[in-house]
Structure formats: C-alpha cells, structure tokens
C-alpha cells in the first residue's frame, strides 16, 4: 500500500489530517525502534554440545530456508539515477507449511545473520533441528547461512544452475557449422545431466573439454568467444559451490526442495510491489532497509505484537475491542 493510499484510509477512519511525508517519517521511526531492539551480531549461533542436543525434545520437523535477491533503484542525495543496490530477501518455512519472511539491504545491514537467526527462533528453532538452506550460491548470501545450526544442510538452487545452462545452450546454436563444434549443445545437455545427478567431477571435466574446443575459434568467431567466457564463469561458479551440489534427481524423487522458487513470490511481494515495477521510485539504502523491516513485520503478522510489547495498555484495548455487527 502506498503512503498516499494510507493517508486516504486514515482520513476515512480517524478524525485527523496527515500527509505522505508524515506517514513515511513515522514508518521509518517505527522501523528504527525495531532495529534498536535487535541483539548484537554474531559469527556463530550454534551453541552448546552434542550431548545437550541429544537431550532436547524431538523437534516438529525440518525448517526450509530460501534466500534470494532483488535490485532497487538507488538515490544518492538529489541524484535519483544513482544506479542500483541489492536487497536480500529470505523465506523460512516450517514442516507444517507456516512461513515467515525477512529482508535487508546487503551492504547496509550490520546484523544480517542475527536477523535470520531471530526469524528461525520465532519458529521454534532447536539445536537438534534439521534445516535446509537454499541459495543461488552468490557471495552475498553464501556466508549468511553458515554456523546457524549444527544440523543444517546447504543446497545450491537448481533453478540458477539450469538457467545458466539454458542461456549457454541457446548461445551455442549460433556457433559456426564445424565438426569440432557440432556436439557443443549436446555436451552442454550432458553437463546438465551430470549436475542433476550430483556428479560435479564429470560435469567440470566435460566443461573443460568443451572450453578447449571453443578456444580454437574464439579469435575468429564472436559467438565462440562469448560462449567460452560464459562457460569459464559457469565453471568457476560450480567449482566454488561444489560442496552445495547434491543429487538433485534423488532429492526431487523424495519430494525434497531443490529450488528457491518458493521465495520468488516473497521477493516480488516484499521488494517489487513497493520498490520496483511500476512505482518508479528511487531509494536510499537506509530508507529501503527500514521499509523492509516494517513490511516483513507486517507480512509475518508480528507488527501488532510489537506495538503491544512497546505499549502494554494496547493489549487490553485490543482484547476489549467490540466486534463489528
């Protein structure tokens, strides 16, 4: 909901006059107060020892956490065309399907891991509970998921793997008609098959062989040069994230999550609805970060509890609120 629409609704239900600037300032003040209550950042949140973990009650089930990102128009002072900056959005889903989301501006937030941990704690996280983290393997999210829980597994999002391969296979269709290059599209399909089954060694081996064929033509052919560059970047991407590549086929057959697709709607709802798309607004990193905190609290259904915590008299007022007839 835009600030302007909020002003209109307030005017309809309350005997008061306000403006969009006031609503924006008040929203930011609420978010800043919530930020002030967030505990200090830590590198490691896994605590106690295995003997104590075994003594804990059996958890309800696995938590699944997806991490993804989006980009927001940046504003620097009066410059409303200052490029873009990255926003990280995550969604945590319990075994029963209950979900909570969180978000922050990557290079502004000083407590990203604490933020994630608090969301998991609110969902009943125990140190003996299984957690699956899925991400695109980028530098901005790779370290965020480490040392949260001793029973966590980390999975590279299959969507980002297959998306890159699809782009390269489409590029390969423009290669010159030469005997040494005619098998490139098919071999890229084999790379995908190896990765789907978690065989990273064979996938990297085949990628290297394809690169050797492309190197012969990179000087004289633009498509070969472009594809070679993309494949080298992809090979490095797979190498860096090889420890996060499972047997996707096996996970899929057992109904386990292999992609952050379930986070996409959250990214669109938290970020794009207000900050990108048709809004055509530009943001400072601070402003975007604080709005993300207010939005995620609202989407998680926690904003009323936050106000009741700050103003205890609100609890009885809410409980005694008459129902509309």
Characterization of this structure:
The chain is an alpha/beta fold and 325 residues long. A 5-stranded mixed sheet has the order 3-2-1-4-5, with helices on both faces. It has helices at 3-13, 20-36, 50-55, 112-122, 139-142, 158-172, 184-196, 200-215, 222-240, 248-253, 261-275, 285-299, 303-310, 313-319, and strands spanning 63-73, 84-93, 99-105, 131-135, 152-156. The chain is built from 14 helices and 5 strands.
Backbone CA Rg: 24 Å
Query: How many strands?
Result: 5
Straight-line N-to-C gap: 27 Å
Which runs of at least 5 residues are low in confidence (pLDDT < 50)? Answer: none
**Series of secondary-structure elements, N-terminal to C-terminal:** HHHEEEHEHEHHHHHHHHH
> How many domains comprise the coordinates?
3
The fold-level CATH name of the largest domain is Nucleotidyltransferase, domain 5
Overall shape: it is globular
Mean pLDDT: 89
């Amino acid at each position: 909901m835009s600030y302007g629409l909020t002003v209109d609704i307030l005017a309809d239900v309350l005997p008061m006059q306000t403006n969009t600037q006031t609503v924006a300032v008040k929203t930011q003040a609420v978010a800043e107060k919530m930020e002030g209550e967030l505990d200090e950042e830590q590198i490691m949140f896994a605590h106690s020892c295995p003997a104590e973990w075994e003594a804990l009650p059996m958890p309800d089930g696995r938590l699944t956490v997806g991490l993804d990102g989006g980009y927001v128009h940046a504003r620097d002072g009066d410059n409303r065309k200052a490029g873009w900056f990255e926003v990280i959005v995550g969604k945590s889903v319990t075994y029963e399907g209950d979900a909570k989301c969180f978000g922050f501006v990557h290079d502004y937030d000083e407590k990203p891991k604490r933020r994630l941990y608090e969301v998991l704690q609110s969902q009943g996280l125990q140190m003996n509970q299984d957690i699956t983290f899925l991400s695109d393997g980028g530098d901005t999210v790779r370290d965020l998921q480490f040392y949260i829980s001793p029973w966590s597994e980390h999975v590279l999002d299959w969507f980002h793997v297959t998306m890159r391969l699809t782009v390269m296979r489409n590029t390969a269709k423009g290669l010159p008609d030469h005997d040494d290059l005619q098998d490139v599209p098919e071999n890229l399909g084999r790379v995908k098959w190896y990765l789907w089954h978690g065989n990273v060694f064979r996938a990297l081996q085949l990628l290297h062989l394809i690169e050797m064929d492309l190197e012969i033509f990179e000087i004289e052919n633009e498509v070969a040069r472009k594809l070679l560059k993309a494949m080298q970047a992809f090979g490095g991407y797979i190498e860096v994230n090889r420890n996060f590549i499972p047997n996707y086929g096996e996970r899929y057959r057992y109904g386990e999550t292999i992609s952050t697709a379930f986070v996409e709607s959250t990214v669109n709802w938290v970020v794009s609805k207000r900050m990108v798309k048709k809004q055509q607004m530009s943001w400072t990193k601070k402003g975007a970060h604080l709005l993300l905190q207010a939005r995620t609290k609202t989407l998680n259904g926690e904003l009323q509890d936050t106000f009741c915590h700050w103003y205890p008299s609100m609890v009885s007022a809410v409980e005694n609120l008459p129902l509309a007839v």
